[in-house]
Amino acid sequence: MKKHLQIQPEWFRREDESPDPLFFTEPRLVVHVDDATIEAARAYFEEALPADGALLDLMSSWRSHLPSSIRSHVVGLGMNDVELSENPQLHERIVHDINAHPTTSLADARFDAAIVTVSVQYMTRPVEIFREVCRMLKPGVRFHVLFSRRVFPTKVVAIWNSLPTARKRAELIATYFADGGDWEEPEFLDRSPGRRADPLYVVRAAKRR
Q1: Which among 88, 46, 53, 83 is positioned nearest to 71, based on CA atoms?
Q2: Residue 205: strand pairing partners
Q3: pLDDT value at position 110?
Q4: Mind giving me the DSSP string for 20-65?
Q5: What is the pLDDT of residue 27?
Q6: Any bridge partners for residue 207, and if so which?
Q7: Which residue from 117, 112, 143 is spatially nearest to 201, judged by alpha carbons?
């Protein structure tokens, strides 16, 4: 994907501009796509993620949708302690407001892959966040950004709602990669399970060696 957009600050305004920790005070033990799409995400992860090593689950919640074949040490970074505690696939749980504080104390080149699942639309400082993910990944490994169509409407950034197609949203994510670290050219994949289910799309790129 070679089309990169010129990022504008107003893109990241939201209907609810209150601090995110207030919104996430109450745990939401729900999934954000339907069962068929969850299975499609699980199948994608089985194909695309390393079977072991260290995996960063960014903007994590009470489910990571990883297949049982993934034996990685999974670090979940999310907003709500209860949600993270309920996630049986996490080995480490870090409560962290990535929008307020895009940098973390996690080590350089620690991870063998990173994922963010149906949450990229809530990033208010995506370029800084993508740059931080790049720092934490080993050279040559990928950051996998999965997205669909459901949102918390008051917390989604304005640019997301203004884009009419999945392709346009993928181009937005590709811009985050282009501006946010030393990444190879992103790829766009459609892994939607069918017309009756929520769609599933992936934008992924590898950190340059």
Answers
A1: 53
A2: 143
A3: 98
A4: HHHHTSS-----SS-HHHHHHHHHHHHHHS-SSSEEEEEEE-S---
A5: 65
A6: 183
A7: 117
- pLDDT at 3 (0 to 100): 66
User: Taking the mean position of all CA atoms in its chain, how far away is CA 188?
Assistant: 14
Cα atoms in the Cβ-side hemisphere of radius 13 Å centred on 85: 4
**65-75: b (≥16 Cβ within 10 Å) or e:** bbbeebebebb
Nearest CA-CA partner of 126 in 192, 177, 57: 177
Q: What is the pLDDT of residue 5?
A: 83
Please name each of the domains of the chain with its CATH number: 9-206 (3.40.50.150)
User: What are the two backbone dihedrals, phi and then psi, of residue 64, each rounded to the nearest 5 degrees?
Assistant: -110, -10
Place of tokens 């994608």: 44
Cα–Cα distance, 54 to 193 (Å, whole number): 28
Give CA separation, 148 vs 68, 134, 207, in Å: 23, 23, 24
Please, what are the averages of pLDDT over each run of 10 residues along the chain (209 residues)?
Answer: 82 89 66 88 97 96 93 95 94 96 97 97 97 98 96 92 95 96 97 92 96
